[in-house]
Amino acid sequence: MKKPEPLNEGDQIPDFSTTDEQGAEVSASGLRGNSFLLYFYPRDNTPGCTAEACGFRDLWSEFKGKKTKVFGVSGDSIKSHLKFREKFALPFPLLMDEDHSLAKSFGVWGLKKFMGREFEGIHRMSFLVDESGKILKAYHKVKAKDHPAEVLADL
Known about the structure:
The chain is an alpha/beta fold. 29% of the residues lie in helices and 28% in strands.
């Protein structure tokens, strides 16, 4: 097991294709021409992940005003994503990454330590991407509750 090696500012995002919790395809090529945020989070319905998601929800109109799409990404199932999105009225899609390929391609999958255990998982990190697919801002150290306002301030 190794520590994650996340992408950095100035890097081009990897080519990817996945679906959201509704089954709609989302791909790097399909997002060209749009500014967007990919925020990776460990798990649906956990305290930190819920605070972060609800923060983006609460600032949603401001993100829309800045013409920036928001996508949450975790390794949870479609069923879990659907329940999470519905329970908290999240206005943005949650992307599927059950095989962790998206997390690995962005370098956010790796060794974690929690309550004396070591295991592999998704690290809470985000990437603000421009219309050409270049990373404008890489957030490697994220405080779940404060992160949505931090991203908005950078737009």
